[in-house]
Amino acid sequence: LAWGGITDHDTVAGALEAQTFCQPDGPRLLLGVEITARHMDRDTHVLAYQFDSINPKLCGLLEEMRRRRHRRHKARLDALARRGIYLPDAPVPEVPGRRHLAQALAETGLANSLQDSFRRYRSEFSSGAPDSGGIPMIEVLAAVNDAGGKAVLAHPPQGTTLEGLRTLKGW
Predict the structure, then answer these.
(1) How far apart are the C-alpha atoms of 19 and 75, rounded to whole Å?
(2) Please, which residues have CB within 8 angstroms of residue 65's CB and are 6 or more apart in sequence?
(3) Spatial distance between the Cα atoms of 71 and 100, rounded to a whole number of angstroms
(4) CB atoms within 10 A of CB 124
(5) What are phi and psi for residue 60, nearest 5 degrees?
(6) Which of 84, 97, 138, 148 is surrounded by the fewest CB atoms within 10 Å?
(7) Inter-residue contact 134 to 65 (CB < 8 Å)
């Protein structure tokens, strides 16, 4: 049987919904999530697979990350407002990110494309509320382990060393 996976940022909602469409004799869906962790003073993305989706520790961590994303989204909207740019009708998704804001700016004609939004509003997109970044890596890995899952580094940031990878493996 074929396998696939859905790893949305900081939520399992899409993966759980997709599982309802899987048939016993059809493709299988590997439950996953991409979690924003903080490691070595930068956000680092961790993919988690094969975990208990109702584990309280992991669910609490994902809920905290979504709260942080909403604080960061508000900080970005505030930064745009300081430039006189308001997006009162822009939808706020369950897990907001820079792409959603870039799309709203493009759709309202304040940018020509997603790429233009990222270029034109770079400083506003960099605005973040205090404590709006990732959750400490050791806490993310502990929650994934507690839920019986497997953690994988999604895309190691530039400057990742073998020593750093060994530390992560130990955690």
Answers:
(1) 34
(2) 10, 35, 36, 134, 135
(3) 14
(4) 21
(5) -65, -40
(6) 84
(7) yes
One-letter-per-residue 3-state SS of 120-134: HCHHHHCCCCCCCCC
d(CA 55, CA 61): 10
CB atoms within 10 A of CB 11: 20
The token duo for 7 is: 């790893």
3-state DSSP percent of the chain in helix, strand and coil, to 5? 45, 20, 40
Tokens of 126: 């960099």
With CA atoms as reference, report the closest residue to 35 among 3, 69, 5, 71: 69
Confirm if 25 and 16 have CB atoms less than 8 A apart: no
Return the amino acid letter for 138.
I
This prediction has a pTM of 0.85
Residue 31 CB: number of other CB atoms within 10 A?
19
